[in-house]
Amino acid sequence: MAFSWILSYPVTSLLVAYIAYLGGLVIYRLYFHPLAKFPGPKYAAISRWHEFYYEVVKKGQFTFKVQEYHKRYGPIVRIVPDEIHIQDSQFYDTLYAKAGRVDKYDWMAGRFGCDTSVFTTGPDELHRIRRGALNPLFSRARIVDLQTIIREKISLLLDRLREFRTEGRILPINRAFMALTGDVVMEYCFSMTYDHLKLPNFEKTLHEPFMAASISGHLSLQCPWVPKLLFMLPESVLVKIEPLYALVFRMQADFRKQITAMKEGKMDDLIKESSHPTVFQELISGSMPPSEKETRRLQDEAQLVVAAGVTTTGWALSTATFHLLNNPHTLAKLRAELESAMPDPTAPLSWSELEKLPYLTGCVREAVRLSYAVTTRNPRLFNKPLAYKDWVIPARTPVSMTIVDVNDDEDIFPDPREFKPERWINPPKTKDGSSLERYFVGFGKGTRSCLGINLAHAELYMTLAAVFRNFRFELYDTDITDVELAHDFFLPSPRLDSNGVRVKVLEKE
Ligand code: HEM
């Protein structure tokens, strides 16, 4: 036999078998896979290595690479062997809202190390249980009641801004906003806060561990064994070799401690004294099945809900602040509206009253649009084939779109990178006459859309009104590259050496 010598060397024969397997896989993926006929680069049909390269090596660049694929191959592209991506703002509603209940892509659950959270849950039935328990706690009525707490925290923020003004110090306002959103969401979830609003320079907010989870997420997805291996190392070693993961594990341990303390009744006094319901206490005493109340499960939920509540809203406030200070005409219009609606700057309006102010509403819409919140594609899986133009996407194929693509679509939002509150006023329409609101997708759409939309809106309206009615600022050593999207770590990130949005708080006129 010609190849009999190979079989006498076990390592060689294993190697040959592996190469034959890889060759077979490449041929299958290129010519026989159900997605074989879809447009896209050949290398993308063969493996995920290009995704690894753009996400891990080039640090969050795959979203932009996918945009290049669309320029070359059209609105529908096979971006990795098993996934289809669509770039067509008209289709967003169909994919996320009209197509009904859908599953999420299990592969993506491993990104942050909180696999059992509501956001990372794959199957629709399980998601219903988890989301059903949270929904009433984040309803509009609940958030209307939470305004007292939000106002208390904003008032603390305003005190700190006065302090920076008196002392003539440079204010890292993006950090101040992260401290605000962190203190609000922790108070609502646990009836306690870390008082980050009181830190001298807001130097240690929850933004750091969440950003660490977000940055390390690409590697965790591509190589799921990495976090598992690192988790086994002592913290003292981990801090030296992988400080990002060290920060993530410490934050997770902290949430575990909070949940355990709550379950053991150690937080009962705090919760009884609290003027508002406490999200995790309600989940623990609510009607979810016992398996859903296990400490590890609730730890995952806490990590996700708090993370979603801190960075998104904090970054939207920072983005709006940059653009307002960078566009004096826009700022003047906002201030004129606020001065007429709030003649006494110390007497704040309610969230519902603020929502009636058209220019402020335009600023909130633009803040959400230009801060993007989630910059990675959001895959969905359907049990039936899905039609897109002449294409039929096989059932159970992960199909995604990316919010950034809609928010930056020139046909919908002319001069898409400009902060133009006017585009949302009187009555907002697109070029073809349809409602612009249809393309307001910053909170996602459908059954998996943002749980915290009411909390986010209350914070955005109330904070922008309070800050810009009471203070004047000047940007300090900050330009557009400090807010513009440069890296997609699931959460948006500007250039990595940015020092954030920094301002001088000016004396009153
Ligand atoms: C400007 C502020 C915010 C924006 C733009 C935003 C945006 C989003 C988006 C786009 C999604 C869906 C992602 C997907 O399609 O899979 C999402 C999900 C979610 N958001 Fe927000 N978010 C914001 C603030 C908040 C706040 C304040 C909270 C609450 C504390 C929150 C909690 C959540 C949760 C729990 C989910 C997962 C929902 C699920 O999978 O059922 N978000 N958010």
TrEMBL record:
Entry keyword set: Heme, Iron, Membrane, Metal-binding, Monooxygenase, Oxidoreductase, Transmembrane, Transmembrane helix
CDD domains according to UniProt: CYP58-like
Keyword RNA-binding assigned: no
Listed transmembrane segments: 6-28
Cofactor: heme
Location in the cell: Membrane
Pfam families for the chain: p450
Keyword Ribosomal protein: no
Gene3D superfamilies: Cytochrome P450 (1.10.630.10)
Chief localization: membrane
Residues noted as binding heme in the record, renumbered to the chain: 450
An example Gene Ontology CC term for this record: membrane
Membrane-topology annotation of the record: Single-pass membrane protein
PROSITE patterns: CYTOCHROME_P450
MF GO annotations: heme binding; iron ion binding; monooxygenase activity; oxidoreductase activity, acting on paired donors, with incorporation or reduction of molecular oxygen
Similarity remark: Belongs to the cytochrome P450 family.
Protein known as: Cytochrome P450
